[in-house]
What we know:
8 helices
Amino acid sequence: MWLFIQRLLFLVLGFTACLSQAQIFTFDVPADQGLCSDAQQTKIGNFISDAKTLVADALWAIDQRNTHDPALLALFTSYFGIRWTADYSRFGDTQSALAWETVHETLKAVKAFLDGNGLPAELQFTGQPPFAFCGDATYQTRGWGDMAVDYQGDQIEKDDGTYETIWDLYKIDFPDQSFNPFYSPVQKGYAFTQGSRPCADTVDLDGNPAQTMAFVAKPLFPKTTGIIEAFGKLDPSIVLCDVAIDKPAEGDNMVEFLSDIQYPTASSPIGLDDQLPQSSIFFHELTHLTTTDVTDRWYPLNSCIKNAVTDNGIETSGAETNAQSYMLFAMAIWYYRHPPAGVTPATFYQGMSNDKLHIDN
């Protein structure tokens, strides 16, 4: 069963010192505030290498558009709902052309970040690399009635001498208190999640039990009190929960890296989600980290494909803004492009490695 990657709603309020601009992430945090060990940082370096491979393969697929090769271009239909004319020479409709551009721009943003060029201007508020945390220890549990603090860590006094609570500031965003507030001293910001902890087990979008694997925290709810901007817009961060950074458990459907994957054969087909590497979780999160509009619409493999290829009467299927669709597409292209010598390329058109070309326009 594919594990759920939970999305957190987050407001970053401040930033601590960063490391060299040449580094992709900032790891310099207190030991009890989500510090990644040397071994974990090394593993994240391997995740980065895998992510570079995945984005390079996905961009390679973009470059193959003019080949009009249905065996390859049909994967864009499977995972992004991009339709083609019968001969695969043109987009099937205007919406497909727009979705293609969104996919291309998203992949370019991920590549630029991995190449050390930082986040896009609209997200790079400080010019410093985003924080990377291992585990959710940086987030302290808060109650809705607790006093709120600003980016300097000071309580916010009202005109009547009382102080703003977290509920005072965020009730417009969470009127039913269905999310729980957390505070990060490192980032001086609040996170909001439905779980008892940011990395705790939760439920997926359909209400099924699910496990949080990783998340990107973004500044979403800027607040002002009077003329003072108490809550500023600063850089996002990424958190890898234990399940995403620790060695996968025996019998789990995950491996660590692309190099650990056992390539399927005609006699031993697999599902695309049967042996996903942990580095693919990291890739999923990068699409959130480097863009402003990629969100989480669907997680399960079957849901991602079904919703992508179904004409639901709106401008696009929405798959081009679904993070899991990017990860699954990149993995499908990786399989397609890198078969061992003498092995037929895996074609995950409907999620299985031996799928025949049958995605209709």
